[in-house]
C-alpha cells in the first residue's frame, strides 16, 4: 500500500507492507516515508520499488498492491498499478481501497439528479452558516459535519433528521431578530426557505435510509482484522440490501415516515411554482411518443418523489456494480477456496482461477 498526501508542492509517500510472518500471523508495518517532487505514475513506481530494495526486501515476493482510485494510481494503461506489473514482468493483482470506492459510490451517484445536487449544496451552506460564531453560540442541536468531496457517510443526514426542528426554530429566530447583522438574517432566510421545502426533507429521509446500509461495511472495512475476502463479501451484502430497497413497499414505508415526520415541522414552505410547459413549435404537427427532455406535468408530489427514489437507487446500484465488478468477483472466487467457511474451500476448479490471476 502506498498512500500519498500533497505537502509543500511535494508528494509524501507512506509505504505500508501487509505480510504473514513465520507464525502465520498477518501484520502491517509502515516501512518508509518518502517524498517526491513529481507525482506521475512512472516516478511513483520507481520510488516505491527503490525504497523496498533499499530496506533489503525482494520484489519477487510482492503478491498484490493497494492504492486509492486516483487515475495516476489505478489507470489501466498508464497507472502505477499497471507500470509496477510491467516493471516486475508479471501480474500483481491491484485492489482499489474499498473504503475510498464506497465513498465514491455516493459522491458519483449524486449528480444523477439536479435535486440531489441542490440538497447537498444546501447541506454545505447549512454547515458553513452554523460555523459562524454568532450562530454557533446559540445553536443547541447536534453538531453539523462538513461534507468532503471524496468522503461521505450518513452522519450529516442523521444530524439533519434529528435536529431539523432545532435548525428551523433557530433560523426563524435569527430571521426575526432585528439585532442580527443584515447579511446573517438574509442568509438565514434563504436557508430556511430551502430546508423547509418538502423535497429537502424527503431527500434527507431517503439518503439516511441508503447511507445507513453503507455505514456498517464502511466501518467494518476499516478494522485491522478485515481481510480481502471479508471485504468483498461485505460490499456484496451491502449491494443486495440496497437493491432490496427498490420496490413499492419499501418506498411506501419511507413515504409514511416522511409524511409523519414533516408534520412536526410546520408550516412548511410552499413548493415553488413550476414553469408552465409548452409544446415546442417545431413539434406541433407531430405526435411525440418519447421524452423531449422534461418530466410530464401534474405528477403529484408523491409520484415525483418516487421517481427520484428509484432513479437514485439505480444510480447507487450502478456505481457499486461498476466499482466492485467483474475483477473483484473473480478475485473473491479465488480467495474463497482458501477460506474454511466457504462452500468452495479447496475447490480445485476455483483454484485454477486463482492460479490464472497470479501468473
Automatic annotation (TrEMBL):
InterPro entries: AtLOH3-like (IPR055298), RNaseH-like_sf (IPR012337). It comes from the Eukaryota. SUPFAM superfamilies: Ribonuclease H-like. This is DUF4371 domain-containing protein. It comes from Pogonophryne albipinna.
